[in-house]
Amino acid sequence: MFQGSSALTLDAKGRMSIPARYRDALMADEQGYLTLTRHPDGCLMLYPRSTWEVKRAQIAALPAAARPLQRLLLGSAQDVEMDGAGRILVSPELREAAGLMREVMLLGLGSNFELWDRPQWEARSLQDVSQLDPAILEQISF
């Protein structure tokens, strides 16, 4: 289970290091094979390959009315592999689509990650907090 956030930097080639706390599990369980794709919110999603394969089948099975979502998710999906230094390459197309510059945030969301441009994430995070539904908050005791 992936959780927490990590402030990371993309290098000049568009590579980023997977944080050590996730790297070992991803190497052991997935041999470093991951999949990146776009998210409707404007960020990228990073999936362990086995998790993506299940998700990909679910997306492909959606009805024809979901074709725009299938184009976004399946049409943008790119398989990536961690290198010996634990880095992955984020393609120029995906970096451009998500507005990723140098400073990024990687968020663990259970079975996958979201990858955001850091300034976009900071603005989105403030917006999300301001729009929290009190009824949902009542279902969680802090």
Fold and architecture overview:
It is a single chain. This protein is of the alpha+beta class and 142 residues long. The protein has a single domain (2-125), classed as Transcriptional regulator MraZ domain (Chemotaxis protein chec, 3-Layer(aba) Sandwich). It is 40% helix and 30% strand. It contains six helices and eight strands. It has helices at 20-30, 49-60, 67-76, 92-98, 118-130, 134-137; strands at residues 2-9, 15-17, 33-38, 44-48, 78-81, 87-89, 103-110, 113-117. The strands form two sheets. Strands 1-7-8-4-3-5 form a six-stranded antiparallel β-sheet. A two-stranded antiparallel sheet has the order 2-6. The model has no long low-confidence stretch (mean pLDDT 95).
Short description:
The protein is of the alpha+beta class. It contains 6 helices and 8 strands; from the N terminus they run ββαββααββαββαα.
